[in-house]
Amino acid sequence: MIQNLMIQLRHTNNAAALSRVTHLKPIKANVTRWSSTYQTLQRYMKIRDAILTVSAVEELVPRGNGHRHIAAVTDKLVELDSVCVKLQAEERSMAEVRLLFDACILNYQR
Hints:
Radius of gyration: 17 Å
Structural class: mainly alpha
Protein name: Dynein heavy chain tail domain-containing protein
Number of domains: 1
Number of strands: 0
Helix content: 55-70%
Shape: elongated
Order of helices and strands: HHHHH
Largest sheet: none
Distance between the termini: 24 Å
């Protein structure tokens, strides 16, 4: 849903309309990297009000419950992204990795 919206916003006319309202550009997710999905959702949240001014994509913009769900997912991804960044640090011990994974399991069990 958001990926399709971002693709439509990158089209010339839509990009021009969006650029009149914000300097931020839409980001397209790279399917091989989960972090780009996070970045795409984060950018959507930042430019949502500006997106609403682009009439050509108005029907693609999530509303109500759909938008609230995306906001909730984005909030959870903020926490998971911080874990991902910590895991990429060079001076990370296996004990620290285990603690990070255990915390994720506790926080994100269904």
